[in-house]
Amino acid sequence: MDAKNRSSRASVARPHQEESELAGTNARKMDRRTFLAGGAAAAGATAFAGLTQDANGQGLAGQPWERTYGAGFRGYGQPSRFEQSVQRHIGRPYGDLAPGSGAALSPIERLEGIITPGSLHNDRSHSGTPDIDPKQHQLLLHGLVARPLMFSVDALSRYPMTSRIYFLECSGNSNRNLVPQPAQVPAGAIHGNIACSEWTGIPLSVLLEEAGLLPQAKWLLAEGADSAHMSRSVPIEKALDDAMIALYQNGERLRPEQGYPVRLLLPGWEGNMSVKWLRRLKATEGPTYTKDETSKYTDLLPDGKALQFTFEMGVKSVITKPSSTMTLPQPGFYEISGLAWSGGGRVRRVEVSADAGATWSDAVLYGEERPKALVRFRLLWEWKGQPAVLQSRATDEKGNVQPPRKEWQARYSPDNRFHNNSIVSWSVDADGSVKNVYA
Amino acid sequence: MFTPRRLVVAVAAALSACAAQPTSVPVKAPAFGSPVSAAEIPRWDISIPPSGAGLPAGSGDVKRGEAVYVAQCQACHGPKGVGKPADPLVGGIGSLATGKPLRTVGSYWPYATTLFDYTRRAMPISNPLSLSDDEVYAVTAYVLYLNGIIAESAEMNAQTLPQVKMPNRDGFVNVSK
Fold first, then answer.
1. N or C end of chain B, less CB within 10 A?
2. Which of A214, A426, A183 is nearest to A326 (CA)?
3. Residue A55, pLDDT score
4. Residue A227 forms contact with B (CB below 8 Å)
5. In angstroms, rounded to a whole number, what is the distance separating the alpha carbons of residues B36 and A149?
6. What is the set of domains in chain A, with CATH numbers?
7. Which helix (H) or strand (E) holds A91?
8. Residues of chain A above pLDDT 90, percent
9. Does the N-terminal peptide bond of residue B162 adopt cis geometry, omega within 30 degrees of 0?
10. Could you report the per-residue pLDDT of B38-88, keeping only the tens digit for each?
C-alpha cells in the first residue's frame, strides 16, 4: 500500500464557529461530526412552510389537510401514499417460468437507519413463497440425537425467547456488479440483497439439548417446507453458538417471504443458510452435500477449483446516499450516508473517499456496538461542482478490510457470482449526476 | 453468545422454592417437543448424503429415464438436457478453468446422490414430490448418461448410484475445516 492510499485523518475538518451560528440547529450536530474535505460555509436553506393563503379572510397559515378532518384508524398500518414508489427491486432470472425463483432486493437507497421494514426486507427464494398454515406446520429434529422430537408452532412459541438484531445478506449480493459494464440502476438493485431486522426466537442450542445431541453429531442438515425443500448443512459449532430458531421479525410474526412461521437464523453467514419455512433439522456426521452447497453457493476460482462452505459474509459497505441514478441539484454540503456490516463480528471503522480512494476520511458510525448487524455511517461532504468518485471502505474487529474491486476479482473465476464484498464506487459528474462506475 | 443453559438451570434450581412466582430464569429446562416414532421419520427424511444412506428401494435405467425426462423435464431443461429456458444439465466438462466456465450436473456437481436428492425434493418445479422413486432413479440415470458418466445399459439403484464417480468430484476446496 503506498502513501496515497493510507487513510488520511488530515483531510478531516470541523465546521467553523461562524458556520455553526449560521446553520442554527443543524450545526450543533455538525459540530460533533467530521467533514469530508470541509472548510467552506454551509449554505442555509430556508423552508417556506405552510404559507398557503386561504379564503377565510384572516390569511392564517394552513394546508388543506389542516382544514379537514383526518382519516380514521386502520388495523394494519401502511406507508404514506406519497411513499408508494419505495419498492423492492425484483429480479426473476427465469421469468414467468418460475416467478418466485430469484430475489427481491431491498431499496437501500430509499431507507435510513439500520432496521429494514419487514415489507422491504430482501427476499431470496428458490421456489417461491409457500402459503403455510401454522396449525399444520411442524418441525422435526432427528438424526444423531437421543430423542427425535417434533415441534408444532404452538410448542415453539412457548419457549423462553431471545431477541437480537442481525443482518441477512444473500451471498449473491452485488453480483450484478460483476457484469462487464456497470448497470445504471439504483444502489438497491445491485447491492440490496441485504437487510437487518430484530429477530426473536429460541436459541437453537436449547432444542438440541432437549433432543440430546449425540457426540458423533458434527453437522446439522436444515430443510425448508418450500416446494424446493431448500436445504443446507450447518456445522454443529455454529448451531450451538448463536444460531436461532426465529419466529418474529421486528416485533411481528415472520413475513411469509422471510420464512413464516419459523426459520433458522445463522447470524453473519450467507443468507440462504438461514433456511426459511424450517421443517426439518437432522444431526449428521458430515455435510449432506445438497444441491445448494455444491452446484450453487460455491465460489469458482481461476484454476477451475471452487471454494466450498464459505459461510461467513465478508466485511462490506456501500454508500446509499448519494448513489447511482441520483442527482445532486447544486454544489454545496451533502451528507454521505451508507451501510456497513461484517459476518465476522463488529464493524470497527468505515472510511469514505471522494477521490476514488486516493485519500480517506473516517465516517461517524451508528450501531457499531452490535456484531453481525448493519451499521449506519455518515459523513458531511462539500461537493464543489467538480467530478468526484465516492467510495467507502469498511474494517471489522478482526482487522478484515473491504478489498478494492480489482483485488477481489483477481481471486476468482470471472464466472463466480458469490461473496462480492469489494469496494463500491459512485461517480459524481460535473452536472451532479451520480453513476455506477468500476474504479 | 447465549447464556449456557446448564448454568441457568442451576441458578434456577436455587430459586425453585418459590417456583409459583414469575422468574426471569426457567425453573426447569423447557421441553415442549413431542416424541416421534421411528416409523414416522422416513416419510420426512428425504436428504441423501454421498454415502447413499437413506436411498430408497427401487431402480431405474436410462431408457425409462428418457421417457420420464421427455414427459417431466424437457419443457424447461430442453431436449437432452441442453437447457433453456431453465439451467442446462449437460456439457461444460473441462470448461471450469476457462474464461467461460459452464457449470452443469456433468461438469460441476461432485456427487450423483445430490442429483437424486434434488430431483426428488424439488422437481418437476410445478409438482415436486410427485415422481416415484423408480422414476427418480431412472431420470437420474438418463442425465448421468447424457453427460457420458454412465453407460447406456447402466441401472441406478441404492447400491450403484453412490458408486458413480462424477468428473468434478475433487474440484472443491472445503474451507470450513
1. C
2. A426
3. 56
4. yes
5. 6
6. 123-304 (3.90.420.10), 316-437 (2.60.40.650)
7. strand A89-91
8. 87
9. no
10. 999 999 999 999 999 999 999 999 999 999 999 999 999 999 999 999 999
Phi and psi of A395, rounded to 5°?
A: -130, 135
The helix/strand/coil state of A258 is helix
* A101 SS3 class: coil
Residue A227 is nearest to which of B49, B128, B176, comparing CB atoms? B128
Residues of chain B with pLDDT under 70: 1-19, 25-27
Q: What's the per-residue H, E or C state across chain B?
A: CCCCHHHHHHHHHHHHHHCCCCCCCCCCCCCCCEECCCCCHHHHCCCCCCCCCCCCCCEEEHHHHHHHHHHHCHHHHCHHHCCCCCCCCCCCCCCCCCCCCCCCCCCCCCCHHHHHHHHHHHCCCCCCCCCCHHHHHHHHHHHHHHCCCCCCCCEEECCCHHHCCCCCCCCEEECCC
User: Which domains can be identified in chain B, with CATH numbers?
Assistant: 1-34 (no CATH), 49-163 (1.10.760.10)
H-helix or E-strand containing A23? helix A17-23
Closest residue, chain B, to A370 (C-alpha): B1
Whether the pLDDT of residue A18 is over 70: the answer is no
- CB contacts < 8 Å between A and B, how many? 161
Q: Do A162 and B122 touch (CB under 8 A)?
A: no
pTM of the model: 0.88
